[in-house]
Design a protein that fits this description.
Distance between the termini: 32 Å
Order of helices and strands: HHHHHHH
Number of domains: 1
Largest sheet: none
């Protein structure tokens, strides 16, 4: 009786999304720790880098039209919001104001999603340079280098979807 729930397609999609989300966190963490492009190493910097890598995944999953891509993207975003909530709590935000902070970061994320779609449709070559220029987290003299590194990450993510 209980075994039927383990075999449900929703659980497979959720596991797939969670594995992709852990991959997103790993890539983001490596990008942040191994580079000195950033104006500040703050929570907002981490948020921006995780957001852009998550946006790449969401866009690719949608464009490639992986089976149940809407559900997978929904699970990815839910994981991101849960992680955001937990991270804010760890940074000392109290129970009374956590909702306000999470809501503001979720609004920022959806704003970035709309900007990323517009940028990616208009300019395929300098997507990340424009993104970094809009959100101003990278030192001006290092934007080209940072966007080249992000292009490499983007290509590796695309390849991971092509071979899966």
């Amino acid at each position: 009786m209980i075994l039927q729930y383990f075999q449900k397609k929703e659980n497979k999609d959720k596991k797939y999304a969670l594995s992709k989300y852990s991959n997103i966190l790993e890539i983001s963490n490596n990008f942040i720790k191994n580079n000195n492009f950033f104006k500040n190493h703050t929570f907002n910097t981490s948020f921006e880098i995780i957001s852009i890598i998550l946006l790449i995944h969401i866009k690719l999953i949608k464009d490639i039209k992986i089976n149940n891509y809407k559900k997978i993207n929904e699970y990815l975003i839910n994981s991101f919001i849960s992680d955001l909530d937990e991270s804010l709590r760890i940074n000392g935000i109290g129970d009374m104001s956590i909702g306000k902070y999470v809501k503001s970061y979720v609004k920022k994320f959806y704003f970035r999603l709309s900007k990323f779609d517009k940028i990616s449709k208009t300019s395929a070559n300098n997507i990340f340079y424009e993104y970094f220029s809009i959100f101003d987290i990278i030192l001006d003299e290092r934007k080209k280098e940072a966007s080249k590194k992000m292009d490499i990450i983007y290509k590796s993510i695309v390849e991971s979807y092509e071979f899966s």
